Amino acid sequence: MPPMPIKLENVGVTVHDLEAAISFFTDLGLTVIGRDTVSGEWTDTAVGLDGNHAKIAMLQTPDGHGRLELFEYIHPQAIDTEPTRPHEIGMHRVAFSVDDIDKALEVAAKHGCHPLRGVANYEDIYKLTYLRGPSGILVMLAEEVKKN
Question: Options 3.10.180.10, 1.20.120.340, 1.10.565.10, 3.20.20.60; which CATH number does 94-144 get?
Answer without folding.
Answer: 3.10.180.10
